[in-house]
Structures are given as C-alpha cells and as structure tokens.
From TrEMBL, chain A:
This is Probable septum site-determining protein MinC. Residues 94-104 have a biased composition (Basic and acidic residues). Pfam families: MinC_C, MinC_N. Residues 4-60 form the Septum formation inhibitor MinC N-terminal domain. One of its GO terms (biological process) is regulation of cell division. Belongs to the MinC family. Cell division inhibitor that blocks the formation of polar Z ring septums. Rapidly oscillates between the poles of the cell to destabilize FtsZ filaments that have formed before they mature into polar Z rings. Prevents FtsZ polymerization. Residues 86-129 are annotated as: Disordered. InterPro entries: CAP/MinC_C, MinC, MinC_C_sf, MinC_N, Septum_form_inhib_MinC_C. It comes from Tranquillimonas rosea.
Automatic annotation (TrEMBL), chain B:
ATPase required for the correct placement of the division site. Cell division inhibitors MinC and MinD act in concert to form an inhibitor capable of blocking formation of the polar Z ring septums. Rapidly oscillates between the poles of the cell to destabilize FtsZ filaments that have formed before they mature into polar Z rings. Transmembrane segments: none annotated. GO terms for cellular component: cytoplasmic side of plasma membrane; cytosol. Residues 3-150 form the AAA domain. ATP binds at residues 11-18. It comes from the Bacteria. One of its GO terms (biological process) is negative regulation of cell division. One of its GO terms (molecular function) is ATP hydrolysis activity. The keyword Cell division applies. Belongs to the ParA family. MinD subfamily. This is Septum site-determining protein MinD.
Amino acid sequence: MRLAGAPDDQFYESLDVRLQQTPHFFSDAPLIIDLDQAADLVDPADLQWLVDNLRQRDLSVFGVQNATADQAEAARAVGLISLSGGRDAPLRGSRREEERKPDPAPEPEAAAPQAAPPPRTTTNKLVSTPVRSGQTVIADRGDLVIVGPVSSGAELIATGNIHIYGHMRGRAMAGINGDETARIFCQSLDAELLAIAGLYRTSENLGAELRRKSVQVYLEGERLRVDPLDRTQNRSGQ
Amino acid sequence: MSKVIVVTSGKGGVGKTTSAAAISAGLAQQGHKTVVIDFDVGLRNLDMIMGCERRVVFDFINVIQGDAKLKQALIKDRRLDTLSILPTSQTRDKDALTSEGVEKVLEELREEFDYIVCDSPAGIERGAQLAMYYADEAVVVTNPEVSSVRDSDRVLGLLNSKTKRAEESGADPIKSHLLLTRYDAKRIGEGEMMNVEDVLEILAIPLLGVIPESTAVLRASNVGLPVVLDDKSRAGKAYEEAVARLTGEQIEMRIESEERPGLFQRLFGRTA
Ligand SMILES: Nc1ncnc2c1ncn2[C@@H]1O[C@H](COP(=O)(O)OP(=O)(O)OP(=O)(O)O)[C@@H](O)[C@H]1O
Ligand SMILES: [Mg+2]
C-alpha cells in the first residue's frame, strides 16, 4: 500500500470504498506500507494510529518500505519491520547520480541530507525447525530456507526466494518488495497460498495433480506459474 | 535434577487433566517423588480426578498470594506416598496467577520433588502460557482429529517461542512429546478420524503413547482414581507405558489397529 502523505479522513473513506468493492481481496493478506511519498509521517503515534486503523479493517500490516532512518525507527517502535533492498534500490542509485548534475530545483525530499545508500547486502535466513501454525518467519533482506515441515496457518515471507525442504502446508510470499524474479521452491506442495511480488494463488486454484509434488513457482509476465521440478512429472503433466 | 513437565493441548476437553493425573500417578508408582499442580484456575478438575476434592483447604493461589505456606496447601495422596497434589482455587480467576509467583512455587517444589507435572488450562492465552513457561518438557495431548492437531501445532509453536527455555540463550529447547488420546481404532478405520501416521507427520515430534478411547477412563474419574491405578484397563496400561517412555525406557509401541500390519514397527522406528 503506497501512501501519498500522512493519511487523513479522506484516505480512510476511499480505503473503505475500495474494501467494500473487493471485501475479501485484502483480508488477512500481509501488507506493507510504502512510505516513499509520505516523508512527513515520522511520529510513532501517527504510525500506530495508522496501523490500528488498518488492522481494524482486517488488513495485516507487518512492515514499511522506503522509510527514512527516522521512519524506520518509528516503525520499529510500533512493532513493524522496515524492509530494504528489493527493486527500489538500483532506482535510488540512479537518482543520486542525477543529483550531482546542477539541478536548479531539487525536490524537497531529495534536499534532506541523507547518508549514502547502504550497499545492497543480502542476508539469507535458514530455519531448520518446523514452522508451526500461527508462526511467521520473515527474511527481510534475502532468501528464506526452511528445512522442516511448514504447518497450515504458518506464514513465510521473504524479499528474495523461498525454499522449503519439507512438507509445505502454509502460506509463502516471495519477492515481497516487488522482486518479480523471486521464486518459491517447494519439496512437497500442499500450500494454502503462494505469492510472488504480490501475485498469488490459493490452494483452491493450485490443481490437485500438483499436490505433494516438488514444484517451483515463478512469475511469467502477469501469470504465476507452478511447475513440477521432476521431468517425468512434467511430461505426464502436460 | 527435578523436571517440570507441562501437560498442554490448546484445544479443550482432549484429556489433559486425565493425562496429568495418570502420568503423575504413574511416575509416583515408579517411586519418583511427584507433585501435580492444577493451573486451570477457576475450574478445579484435577483434585476431583485424583479423588481428594474434600481434602482441599488451601490452594495454589493462596500460596502465590502468601496466604498459606506451600506445605499447608500440598495434599498427600492416600494411595501413593510419593505423590502430592497442589490444587487450584475455584473462586479466583486466572489473573490471580503471576509469573513471579509461579516461578517461586516451582523453585520451592524443585527442592523436594523429582517430577513436577503441570495440568494446563485449555487455550493459548495467559493461563496456558504461564503453565508452560517454566517447563523442561511438554506432553502435548492430542485427539486424532483435525482441529485438535492444529491447536497442538500452535501450542508447539508457543513452546518453542514463548517459554523460558526458548528465551534464554544457550538453554536446550523444551522437549515435547505427543500423547495421542481418545484413540478410536474403529472410527479411524472408517476414515472418520486421523491415523497415527498422519498426526505424526504434521506435528513432527516423538510419540509418547496412544491412549485408546475407553469407558474405564470415565469410570475411574468418577471414583477419583487415576486410570493407571486401575490395572485391568487398556487405557491404564497404555498410560503406564507412556510414563515408562517419559522416563527414558524403550518400550515397543503397541496400538490396537484395524489397519495394515507392520505399522507398529514403523511407528516404533519413528520414536527412536
Ligand atoms: N481415553 C479416554 N477415553 C474416554 N474418555 C476420555 C478419555 N480421555 C479423556 N476422556 C474424557 O474426556 C473428558 C475430558 O477429559 P479431561 O477433563 O481430562 O480433558 P481436559 O483436556 O483436561 O479438558 P479441559 O480443557 O476442559 O481442561 C472427560 O469426561 C474424560 O473422562
Ligand atoms: Mg483439564
């Protein structure tokens, strides 16, 4: 969800209209607040107010992205994680190049002195215990590798790829920052939900023939593909 | 070294109190000094199942609030001199339990007893979290049906994250065991309930025992007799074997079954 400035009453009104139009679309889906155009939202109390208002509407906010240092701190104070990396990182780099050229009217946002962008580091996360119902595992700057079963009602979230070596009954969301090249690899598929860069499929439209198969999940244009990894499965499949 | 064992489940009515009573009596029968604590504040079932409800004067809450000494509240079992019961209050609610109070009582009990068995309330809220917080081991009581298995899975998540052992760096995690109760081979054979293998695959913890559905359980609890002390019943026998496994004995798993032969061996292999 991208904010343009601190939210006002009008924001909540139009949000409610949207939610009425598509009541189930967002419910319980994990949500990130994009602060790129809301640099004025820095007070933890305001952020908490926003989070409370969103959660009241059954929107599960768990993080912010494109936050300034102050915003990231405020986000941490209200229990949100601050996501970095992802596809915005190279964009920022090129914007910085432009700033060096003489520019008569710098954007107010860019005028704020900022440290050089942190190098794009990835930190992968490995979990070798079962992920239980009700637990959420987040890799906020890289790949997530799970060695063990993932229960129904458990949630895996990564900015990069997700690998599951074990029976997968939960929800997995890869490329959460919008990385459309992210993939999900799954040793034994029985998932409730699979998503890459926000595009998702639920168990209802995953197809019974893939159940318990080893698969990879990736984006092909605007289509989320779920392909068996095994060649023989591939042939008998299609 | 004394051990604190929590008997927990998430879902209500699956057989926690029955199991806590049977396990503590079984441990005491083996000669271990054992105390069983009722954490289900406000409901007070344990002392009934243990047959000592008329002997309760002071309770766990009185001790926590400093109104009674631990010695005054502990009730010695009349059948097994190695067994004691710490009953709970029927008039207070769960807020009367404090984390510091629980810790203090457990520390004091550790000095005297080999095993401290905690009968948890249902749910995953405060009461259940306090019952599991200081545990060294957990017996996760599960019925072979989907909702019970799912709740047990959530509880396993809490055991691995919201307990002292999970929070302390360097401590071994809580050792969790699965106790499958109210196992009805006929209904499983007919596909109405889940079989042992399906449950084990989801929960992925070692199997402590399988307790059959049995009218002996209700009969025993009506007369205030922990079911292990009823040596004729199959359920009593199954609890006895579960207790032996809890203390580290290797006993082959025997499950009455209307399924394929060879299942026992495979199950036994899994628990090793
Ligand atoms: N193996 C069994 N066979 C038949 N009945 C059983 C068995 N185990 C437990 N029961 C019955 O199930 C009911 C609930 O048992 P119990 O009180 O031990 O569950 P609980 O998990 O402690 O419940 P609560 O969540 O309310 O504390 C009781 O009536 C008990 O007699
Ligand atoms: Mg009970």
